[in-house]
Amino acid sequence: MHVQADNPLLTPEQADAKDRDALDWVVGDARGRRVLRAVLRWAGIEETGATEGIERMAFDAGRRMVGGMLRAQLRKHAPEGWVAMEAEHVQELALQVAHEAREEERKRAAQGTPAPTEDPFR
């Protein structure tokens, strides 16, 4: 495998164009978007609240900062890819909710418990 370093003499505009091209390449495939979603999830950008210990709080803050920087770069340089990532995330959540509902129904049927008839959101 041949590795070539970036040209340090790039103008800011050229560097921006290279970043845009690289992110477009990654988000241009569902596998790349899936990896980026996992990285953002690991970064904990959606997590809130304090944890015990100053070291852990500092670690979590740094982790979230890196995730936030990645998210900002995606939104800036690959907005279409960002939108696709968000749409795929919503689809995954919907599938997860449907799967959990089927599992709950299966457990109720196995126990002989009737399904609730009342809307829990009213």
Could you characterize the architecture of this molecule?
The chain has 122 residues and is mostly helical. Helix content is 71%, strand content 0%. The radius of gyration is 21 Å and the shape is elongated. The longest helix has 33 residues, at 79-111. The termini are far apart. Helix 2 crosses helix 4 (79-111) and helix 3 (54-77) crosses helix 4 (79-111).
In short:
The chain contains four helices and no strands. By secondary structure, it is an all-alpha fold.
Give the SSE layout.
Elements: H1 12-27, H2 30-43, H3 54-77, H4 79-111
Helix pairs in contact: 1-3, 2-3, 2-4, 3-4
Question: Helix/strand/pairing class, anyone?
Answer: mainly alpha
Largest sheet: none
- Principal-axes shape call: elongated
Individual helix count: 4
Residue windows where pLDDT falls under 50 for at least 5 positions: none
Distance between the termini: 60 Å
The whole-number mean of residue pLDDT values reads 87
Question: How many distinct beta strands?
Answer: 0
State which percent range the strand residues make up: under 5%
What is the C-alpha radius of gyration, as a whole number of Å?
A: 21 Å
Descriptors for this entry?
about 120 residues, mainly alpha, 4 helices
